[in-house]
Amino acid sequence: MKYGFFDDNAREYVITTPKTPLPWINYLGNKEFFSLISNTCGGYTFYKDAKLLRLTRYRYNNVPYDNNGKYFYIKDLNENGLVWNPGWQPVKTTLDSYECRHGLGYSKFSSSKSNVKADLLTFVPMNDNCEVSKLTITNNKDTVAKLSLFSYVEWCLWNADDDMKNFQRNLSTGEVEIANGGSVLFHKTEYRERRNHYAVYGVNTEVNGYDTSRDAFLGAYNGPDSPDVVANGKCTNSVASGWSPIASHQIDIELAPSESKTFIFTLGYIENPEDQKWESYGVINKKPAFAMLDKYKTVEAVDAALKELNDYWSELLGIYHIKSSNEKVDRMVNIWNQYQCMVTFNMSRSASYYESGIGRGMGFRDSCQDLLGFVHLIPDRARERIIDIASTQFQDGSAYHQYQPLTKKGNSDIGSGFNDDPLWLIAGTSAYIRETGDISILNEMVPFDNDMSVAKTLMGHLKCSFDFTATHKGPHGLPLIGRADWNDCLNLNCFSEHPGESFQTFGPSEGPVAESVFIAGMFVKYGEEYAQLCELLGDDAEAKRAREEVQKVYDAAITAGWDGEWFVRAYDAYSNKVGSKECEEGQIYIEPQGFCVLAGIGVKEGLAEKALKSVEERLDTKYGVMILQPAYTKYHLELGEVSSYPPGYKENAGIFCHNNPWISIAETVMGHGDRAFDVYKKTCPAYIEDISEIHCTEPYVYSQMVAGRDAKFHGQGKNSWLTGTAAWTFVNISQYILGIYPTHKGLSVDPCLPSDFGDFELTRKYRGGVYNISVKQNGSQKGVKKLIVNGKELSGNVIPYEEGVKEYNVEVIM
């Protein structure tokens, strides 16, 4: 069942009913100012950091769901005071028509009731810290329409965590200012204490009233679905003092038949200049706010800003663009997959409808993986991100697992000990250099734990990453897992002399330690990439040493890491196998099967083919490949959190969409185009739009996980948007299935396609050149017969990069 449709020409997903299975959201903003907005106008806004600089409130886990946003109430005096909202919520009056169009950095709503039509456009401009909403109201009645329009936002007291807990303090701090007769409302809470900033909400017209007190607007016992002010038809001109500040405008409207009026609302964030001196208590510099409001006070200015946003996305998405006979592949590759990669760049895992923006900031592992999906789009910002991530690393190569985007400081609440983290820094840096050829980044001085007194070059950091894994190995010669590897819930470093006693966590030198075959796969892949970076710098001795260390782990992976038909997942603190046929439950895990094979482990020995066959036979479902089987039906303390979930959910036999691409990539390594594409399709939004009533999450972006075969709601998606699935899937489809892979020497072209994919054309911008690539498949799944570049046939698969060449016309015959 569908709840909308793709409009590929407009690059929009069109939602045709507000009653979607879950709120279907969009992200607004590209630089520092961001908003989340749902298909019913729910959501919230923040500047830089969703925790520390939250502008508007949102209530998670509320009833009804998605309750609080930026609302417009239309009161129709011709219809006995009927009240409705353009996005349906919060009043939920049945609308005569409804449509929500989520586009790239903007959302549009078009609704009507009783022959009054509302068209709402909301977006964040490219170069200003504000959200602009253009609301046009049209009278389609035969008589004059008399209406009252009420806006509504509820301010957050900046620190979202403190805001929802510290009531004894916060219910005495709300302060506002009113300007221009109420058309401009300022939120300045806490500025006097330590914050040289404020928020503003203004409209480009005179108003008939305003409110800044939530209790005055809603009434002490009402919610946003039935505000007193809207029911009474008149604002109270309240001035919040303590308690909860809001911003609301009242605009009374008369429209002749067929007449329209447009109002522009701007929600902004302002920082006073560093040298701003307050002459007296209560003074804030309003000039920047008025300048911002003036900039967007006309329809022409708003339309120009929207065009600038659309032009930005057109240029960005032109960097990698395919034209094939596969409409759904083109849709995902050209629009939605890359768009989601950019959102994960901005958000990491910090702010979604499933992440509150409070407990998590930027992830070390997460951000490195996300970089794989956007480095081709914004290489300069990818460079900055790599330096930010590396700056949180410790001198031994380990790292804070997360850091706050505003402070760039490590999150001590989460801490460190995730032993896969160091290798992801090599992965991200390698991807950046293969994309750009910029080896100068390796000579950048980067601090440890943001302390420049102990800085090294970025290459020095990568050596620390490599050496951390090389020197932290267990009794089988496999890397130590630490607190966890990619699977945060696989916590194996527990030990007890006597069953039933409480378990203790031991460090590497203190007792039995657990090992990870998954990290072994990472070390083989990214150890080789580290060696290649060493060679770029002319350090052949270090490259040789690195490859020797990689070979040791490779050998351990095909011996101690092999279980006969698939790769073992790990060894626990007792040196017992995890993910083995010897186990009663959790006999096979997806992670090492995918990552070891994509790293090339076991290919020449014939093990890789067996491992992937075992995945297909034991883990595959119609909705994707499960993370493990059989599911854990009882709690295993020695395994940590993994068995704490019910069977079929999350790490306990759920379908983690994030590592499905590893299996697909592994299949391309083996030349299995049909199987690789089959795995790709099962979690691809465009291919599962028809089962939205089962899948539930947005049909235009990837989810983190889907309920597995053991779950009651098999196929139900959860945790959409902020997931490594986006980056890894784009890597899979763009670099392995379509086969356009950046190397240090140039673009490699080596597609691995399903037999019936057909010919395709692809544009890829790379290092200042435009590559116009035409692929003739000839029914082949893999293998390039001819590679012709600018009329000259080349041997091999790599198109050598030539500085100064602006256009490459490439013909590939498979």
TrEMBL record:
The keyword Metal-binding appears for this protein: no
Occurrences of domain Glycosyl hydrolase 94 supersandwich (ranges): 11-297
GO annotation, biological process: carbohydrate metabolic process
Domain Glycosyl hydrolase 94 catalytic, first and last residues per copy: 312-739
The keyword ATP-binding belongs to this UniProt entry's keyword annotation: no
Top-level lineage group: Bacteria
Pfam families: GH94_b-supersand, Glyco_hydro_94
CDD domains, alphabetized: GH94N_CBP_like
Gene Ontology terms for molecular function: carbohydrate binding; glycosyltransferase activity
Keywords from the UniProt entry: Glycosyltransferase, Transferase
PANTHER family named in the record: CELLOBIONIC ACID PHOSPHORYLASE, CELLOBIONIC ACID PHOSPHORYLASE-RELATED
Protein's recorded name: Cellobiose phosphorylase Cbp94A
Protein's organism: Butyrivibrio hungatei
